Amino acid sequence: MKVEGKDYRTVWMEGNTVCLIEQNLLPFEFKIFRSENYQQTCMVISTMIVRGAGAIGATAGYAMAQAFVESGNDPEYVENARKEIENTRPTAQNLFYAVERVYRAGKASIEHAIIEAQKIADEDADACKKIGELGNDLIKDGANIETHCNAGWLAFVDYGSALSPVYAAHRSGKQVFVYADETRPRGQGARLTAWELKNENVPHVIIPDNAGAHLMSQGKIDLMIVGSDRIAANGDVANKIGTLEKAIAAKYYDIPFYVAAPISTIDFDCASGKDIPIEQRHEDEVLYQSGPNTKGKLEQVLISSPGSEAVNPAFDVTPAELVTAIITDKGIFKPQELATIKS
Ligand code: MRU
């Protein structure tokens, strides 16, 4: 990805320092956060300085590598670190996938842990590039595409999942237009997807979350592409809260509903969506919103009735029957075909 003409990844490692684009500050400020140890990297994941399935996965892998480096070969230190990293966020499968791989590699040597973490990050970027190439075939010239949340470069190490086919289509000269759901409560669509699309010069508008069905009813949406945080073996898809109602509306209006995700997001040990843990986040994310004040400093403001409480489930599960196809780095599959690709 390019930001102001310079190449970046969402997360990378320099020595034992994990460097990340600080997503909580976007789109108002572009800043790199430097995390010096695994505990700090855990904080980075839980406070969503980094977020999005693949980016969380790569970061968690780097955190596990940091823990090996810091451990002085003390197995208890590594075990505790593993638990702490896995407790940062519960839903994204890539986090558990990456921690497991680096943990196993680190049993051989600290050097192996570092190499494995780097490999996971590289594989994530390569897989997302491939998703773009394959998904591009599903996008016709002139297509109007709705997406939910941010499954672009910022949600991965590079390229993105749902937005990767959009970028590939745009670069190949097709006219595409994106309707970006704002994605309450944290606004990943309004803040991050819109910022990415602007960087890539892709024509787009931000829409309120509750406008999707209306636009579909007016024939304004040709297809929907979303990402995923975890896909069960039966093809049920966990994604940002609000995805389920978009899928229901898309089915009603006969609009193709695609999910784009690398194979690493599929949890073959999860039989169905019922087994996917859904993260419950703090109510303040619903009750307050943040943005720059007149001096450009980020401030939080209360936007709800004082004293009312809120519930804040971060994800929902879309049943496989509502998903037209899943665009992966290994091909495009009907949800019920996933079982056949278990390696
Ligand atoms: O809570 P987040 O921002 O980490 O949520 C993850 C997401 O960005 C979305 O659910 C996304 O659509 C899938 S992750 C590529």
Share in β-strands: 15-25%
Q: Specify the CATH architecture of the largest domain.
A: 3-Layer(aba) Sandwich
The DSSP helix count reads 10
Q: Give me the strand/helix succession.
A: EEEEEHHHHHEHEHEHEEEHEEHEEEEE
Q: What would you call the structural class?
A: alpha/beta
Low-pLDDT runs of 5+ residues are: none
CATH superfamily annotation of the largest domain: Translation initiation factor eif-2b, domain 2
Classify the helix fraction into a percent range: 25-40%
Report how far apart the termini are.
Answer: 30 Å
Word description of this protein:
36% of the residues lie in helices and 20% in strands. A hairpin with a 4-residue loop joins strand 10 and strand 11. It has two domains: 2-129, Four Helix Bundle (Hemerythrin (Met), subunit A) (Up-down Bundle); 133-342, Translation initiation factor eif-2b, domain 2 (Rossmann fold, 3-Layer(aba) Sandwich). It is an alpha/beta fold and 343 residues long. Strands 8-7-6-9-12-17-18 form a seven-stranded mixed beta sheet. Helix 1 packs antiparallel against helix 2 (53-70) and helix 2 (53-70) packs antiparallel against helix 5 (110-136). The chain binds 5-S-methyl-1-O-phosphono-5-thio-D-ribulose.
Topology:
Elements lengths: L1 E2 L2 E2 L3 E4 L2 E5 L10 E4 L2 H9 L6 H18 L4 H12 L6 H16 L1 H27 L6 E5 L15 H9 L4 E6 L6 H12 L4 E4 L4 H6 L5 E4 L3 E3 L4 E4 L2 H10 L4 E4 L5 E2 L16 H4 E5 L5 E5 L12 E4 L6 E4 L2 E3 L10
Parallel strand pairs: 6-7, 6-9, 7-8, 9-12, 10-13, 12-17
Antiparallel strand pairs: 1-2, 3-4, 4-5, 10-11, 11-16, 14-15, 17-18
Bound molecules: 5-S-methyl-1-O-phosphono-5-thio-D-ribulose (MRU).
